[in-house]
Amino acid sequence: MDIRHLKIFIAVAETGSMSGAAKQFFVTQPSVSQVIKELESHFGVLLFERLGKRLFITDSGRYLSRQARIVIRQFDELEESMLNAGRTESVRVGSTITVGACLLSSLMADFKKSNPEIKTFNYVNNTKMIEERLLRAELDIALVEGQIKHPDLVIKPVIADYLVIVCGRRHRFAGQQQIKIKELEKEVFIMREKGSGTRKLFMDFIEKNGFNLNIGWEVTSPEIIKTIVMKNNCLAAISIRLVEEEAQNGDIYVIKHNEHSWNRTFSLVYHKNKHISKGMLGFMNVTQAYGNTGIITDVPVGMLI
């Protein structure tokens, strides 16, 4: 078995066919079939179920797919570093949408100050998509606000955050010091898309308290969410870090939960088998320097009870 075996196997897993992988590698379909047979013989497991003309990857195949991507990425990194010794290092950083909106630009600016020689690629999406890219070795490290539970990923909490409910200055909740939880049932909410860590945290709270939520909007962009809140008399659950300016100038009114149920942390995430490069270490150091700073405390707020 060599690295080419694994690359062909990944191609079969991604395309779902021997012929698709054969086209990618400019070989015959029987050659691809032989590679899969050799891998199955080597590991003593069935990697694909063959039903008619279709292939279905097995649990063993899915496990090998995850691990093979890491091995291939490490091999490619080794080859690249040996061929380009002394040239520019690169790091691929992922962040969830909330982190991307409120922190990523500042983080990367600070990173470039201390690591000007390192090239960076940044990818912003929801927690689910970031997790998938880390597992496929398409990202080196990420900063996320959602929960990640995959056993192959290392999670290190680094930056404090919490959710708040926000409304516009003309909303009936604006200026109220106390709002009862049941009052939320009467309101229209803007929610992040499924796969968002912000949405999951808030929906877990809703389910725990046993009431219905009227979701009138589903939006991926924090800036659009804030605009809708201010112009359409809706409510939204959002990171406190995203509404600092609007809360301070009075365009948005902030409502906290009195039991701190929406407290969370932004966490660094990377694969457990990942080699910690200089670029990854530099990004870790920058995020840890942010610590508990940046959460506003000097604006009037309401309290959900």
TrEMBL record:
Pfam families: HTH_1 (PF00126), LysR_substrate (PF03466). Gene3D superfamilies: 3.40.190.290, Winged helix-like DNA-binding domain superfamily/Winged helix DNA-binding domain (1.10.10.10). Keywords: DNA-binding, Transcription, Transcription regulation. Residues 1-58 form the HTH lysR-type domain. The keyword Heme does not apply. GO terms for molecular function: DNA-binding transcription factor activity; transcription cis-regulatory region binding. InterPro entries: LysR_HTH_N (IPR000847), LysR_subst-bd (IPR005119), WH-like_DNA-bd_sf (IPR036388), WH_DNA-bd_sf (IPR036390). Belongs to the LysR transcriptional regulatory family. This is MarR family transcriptional regulator.
